[in-house]
């Protein structure tokens, strides 16, 4: 651009961008902690979350407790006070300690339909796809042929116009059968 590059200004912008912190995403933080507790992070993310846990002792204690509770024998070794708290919170979800009447929801499979009906359904879908593909190809080919003609040949008469063929494609097909093969 005619001017010498100002590398100092570029370095200053780069330093500023490195020092600017992105806002913390609380949901991503909890997902990282859960992944760390379950040992489901890759090596880079594991090292990053381990560095964060070294600074945040409360989160490190939560991760340690989650790992301890995830062990199969954890329920048996939980203190009675913790188990009583869990049971009390579960009982509070049910109003007045009474259970609601049970409702059974049956999940039935789709009723069996006759083979002919299933064949007709899938056959009609396949036919619709074939017709739509053919129509799109025919319209695209005709349009491409019209647009790529030299300007001297673009003057069309009513007989060579491609618009009636879009509405009634059988006319040109029958005309080609009568007149012979055209190139």
List the helices and strands and how they pair.
Blueprint: H1 7-19, H2 26-37, H3 43-55, H4 57-70, H5 74-77, H6 80-92, H7 115-147, H8 163-167, H9 170-179
Structural class: mainly alpha
Helical residue percent band: 55-70%
Question: What's the number of extended β-strand segments?
Answer: 0
Tell me the number of helical segments per DSSP (H or I, 4 or more residues long): 9
- Low-confidence spans: pLDDT under 50, at least 5 residues? none
Mean pLDDT across the residues is 75
Provide the β-strand percentage band.
Answer: under 5%
Overall body shape:
flat
Topology as H/E string? HHHHHHHHH
The structural domain count equals: 2
Distance between the termini: 57 Å
Radius of gyration over C-alpha positions, nearest whole angstrom: 36 Å
- Largest sheet features: none
Overview of this structure, please?
The chain is an all-alpha fold and 183 residues long. It folds into 2 domains: 24-96; 123-179. The protein contains 9 helices and no strands.
Short description:
By secondary structure, the chain is mostly helical.
Q: Which features characterize this protein?
A:
mainly alpha; 183 residues; flat
């Amino acid at each position: 651009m005619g001017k010498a590059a100002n590398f100092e200004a570029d370095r200053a912008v780069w330093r500023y961008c490195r020092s600017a912190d992105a806002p913390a995403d609380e949901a991503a933080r909890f997902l990282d902690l859960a992944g760390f507790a379950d040992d489901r992070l890759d090596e880079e993310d594991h090292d990053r979350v381990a560095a964060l846990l070294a600074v945040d002792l409360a989160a490190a204690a939560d991760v340690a407790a989650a790992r301890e509770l995830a062990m199969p024998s954890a329920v048996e070794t939980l203190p009675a006070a913790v188990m009583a708290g869990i049971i009390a919170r579960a009982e509070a979800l049910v109003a007045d300690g009474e259970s609601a009447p049970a409702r059974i929801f049956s999940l039935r499979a789709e009723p069996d339909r006759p083979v002919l009906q299933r064949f007709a359904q899938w056959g009609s879908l396949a036919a619709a796809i074939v017709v739509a593909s053919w129509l799109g190809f025919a319209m695209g080919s005709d349009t491409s042929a019209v647009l790529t003609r030299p300007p001297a040949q673009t003057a069309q008469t009513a007989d060579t116009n491609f618009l009636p063929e879009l509405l009634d494609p059988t006319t040109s097909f029958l005309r080609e059968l009568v007149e012979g093969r055209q190139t």
